[in-house]
């Protein structure tokens, strides 16, 4: 495949490494200094840019008929608009807050545990996410996806950064060194705690998942998620 990278930072460079190892070609590396973009050579675009840029990059891809994988987080206030424009242009689009296989397993584990905890009111849930100090958004997109999974399956109705009132999930965001991404969920009662945790050791898992999603989406039309790409049962 001929892949265009929108965002050539930490993730863009890791995606390039994984893509080349899978015999793909990088036909464009779009970044802040890019003036002209030639869409004619792209089979698929992969956007790992920044919260303020992602939506604009997606729209350009939809308008030029290029399927797009969006990994950038912190722009979900525009997600519904992006879906509508994708459909209007008969485009193809996958957004995932986290493309790694391990985190997508963790998403399923999170919902499974939440269903079991639904009526155990003696337990209170809390979340923590730890990332590198260069991360622009908080909480992480992954943490938001996890919180939504808990809300869907329990009596909790919202999430809040740091402290949260009863019925809302508190999320603590920490920025430490070069941490790739650690997410933990804790159900605590007077007598015990139950915790599940995912720790990324590097960015390879994120990049591999994004490239696999790119390989999957080529030739398709519509809006998809990583659940469509991964058959996790
Ligand atoms: N969904 C997932 O699996 C993952 C998502 N992410 C997300 O990906 C995004 C990027 O993360 P990193 O690569 O670590 O950040 P980074 O800061 O290393 O790279 C972002 C790059 O985007 C460039 N950029 C800024 N405006 C742009 C524009 N208009 N068009 C194209 N490029 C532009 C920046 O100059 C920079 O080179 C963040 O939102 C992060 O949360 C990161 C890892 C995994
Ligand atoms: O900024 C990052 O690095 C990451 N961001 C994503 C998120 O916001 O969840 C995914 C991963 O945790 C790394």
Automatic annotation (TrEMBL):
Write out the coiled-coil annotation as residue ranges.
none
Residues recorded as binding (S)-2,3,4,5-tetrahydrodipicolinate, renumbered to this chain, are 132, 141-142
| One Gene Ontology MF term | 4-hydroxy-tetrahydrodipicolinate reductase
Keywords (A to Z) from UniProt: Amino-acid biosynthesis, Cytoplasm, Diaminopimelate biosynthesis, Lysine biosynthesis, NAD, NADP, Oxidoreductase
Pathway this chain belongs to: Amino-acid biosynthesis; L-lysine biosynthesis via DAP pathway; (S)-tetrahydrodipicolinate from L-aspartate: step 4/4
| Subunit field text | Homotetramer.
Cited PANTHER family: 4-HYDROXY-TETRAHYDRODIPICOLINATE REDUCTASE 1, CHLOROPLASTIC-RELATED, DIHYDRODIPICOLINATE REDUCTASE
Task: Spell out the reaction equation it catalyses.
Answer: (S)-2,3,4,5-tetrahydrodipicolinate + NAD(+) + H2O = (2S,4S)-4-hydroxy-2,3,4,5-tetrahydrodipicolinate + NADH + H(+); (S)-2,3,4,5-tetrahydrodipicolinate + NADP(+) + H2O = (2S,4S)-4-hydroxy-2,3,4,5-tetrahydrodipicolinate + NADPH + H(+)
Species of origin reads Zobellia barbeyronii
Protein's UniProt keywords contain Amino-acid biosynthesis? yes
Listed name of the protein:
4-hydroxy-tetrahydrodipicolinate reductase
Domain of life, per lineage: Bacteria
Q: What range(s) does the Dihydrodipicolinate reductase N-terminal domain occupy?
A: 1-99
List locations, semicolon-separated: Cytoplasm
Q: Where is the active site?
A: 131, 135
**EC number(s) on record?**
1.17.1.8
SUPFAM superfamilies listed in its UniProt record: Glyceraldehyde-3-phosphate dehydrogenase-like, C-terminal domain, NAD(P)-binding Rossmann-fold domains
Residues annotated as domain Dihydrodipicolinate reductase C-terminal:
102-230
Gene name per UniProt? dapB
- Function field: Catalyzes the conversion of 4-hydroxy-tetrahydrodipicolinate (HTPA) to tetrahydrodipicolinate.
Q: Does the keyword Secreted apply?
A: no
As for family, the record states: Belongs to the DapB family.
Task: Give the InterPro entries listed for this entry.
Answer: DapB_C, DapB_N, DHDPR_bac, NAD(P)-bd_dom_sf
